[in-house]
Specification:
This is Hemerythrin-like domain-containing protein. By secondary structure, the protein is an all-alpha fold. It has 9 helices and no strands.
Length: 230
């Protein structure tokens, strides 16, 4: 890799924070769906919109890795990448299939409140595939990224997701990630943001997430399970 040895390498702590949020929300989701009374379209729309938000976040998160992370590791990490990247790619394909099944069932359920059990099963299938994948990624991919991907390249992963996220959703998504985030990691993530975002996001994000969680989970403080649910 033709790089200046003084160049900063990837700070992967933000990936653990993102994973904790995905673990928490996808682990709570099957029961949220099951708790909606058949035919309660109003409640199904609330939980369904939340499901749609999570599915979009997950899709963009993995799309960024497919485009920006795997090729760099394959190019630079040799046998170490060859031993794990194909597994990561295969898991992404399986997750994308499970994700597509959830997305296909969502519109009808959001509209009518019917078919919740089938949707809950599809969400559970997606959750199981995702939990397994993230655990493996944390033990085998993130250590490689720290050695073979620069900080500037790593930032492109987050920028990819942000560029494709509706602007009005970004503060809520950041609040969702911050909920279990280490303050030092949050500070590092925001370090390169424009000054207004750096000042306002730590205030607005948690407030938006608290209101969203109250609506979706019935509490502003849903269980913090991200760190334990490997």
């Amino acid at each position: 890799m033709n790089q200046n040895h003084r160049e900063a390498m990837a700070d992967v702590r933000d990936m653990y924070m993102a994973h904790a949020a995905l673990r928490r929300e996808f682990s709570l989701l099957p029961q949220l769906v099951r708790d909606v009374a058949p035919g309660d379209a109003q409640r199904a729309e609330v939980v369904g919109a939340h499901t749609d938000l999570l599915c979009n976040v997950l899709h963009l998160h993995h799309e960024g890795e497919d485009l920006l992370l795997w090729p760099r590791l394959v190019e630079r990490a040799g046998a170490e990448a060859a031993a794990i990247v194909p597994t990561m790619e295969a898991q992404h394909h399986a997750i994308e299939e499970a994700h597509a099944a959830v997305v296909a069932l969502l519109p009808e359920w959001r509209r009518t409140g019917r078919g919740g059990e089938q949707l809950a099963d599809a969400v559970e299938h997606l959750r199981a595939a995702l939990i397994e994948h993230m655990a493996m990624e944390e033990t085998q991919i993130l250590p490689l990224a720290q050695r073979y991907v620069t900080a500037a390249e790593w930032m492109q992963l987050g920028e990819h997701g942000l560029a494709k996220t509706p602007k009005k959703q970004a503060p809520l998504i950041f609040g969702l990630a911050m909920y279990e985030g280490d303050p030092e990691v949050i500070k590092a993530v925001l370090a390169h943001a424009p000054l207004p975002a750096r000042l306002l996001m730590p205030i607005i994000g948690p407030r938006l997430f608290a209101a969203h969680a109250k609506r979706v989970h019935g509490t502003a403080t849903p269980p913090r399970i991200g760190a334990n649910a490997h």
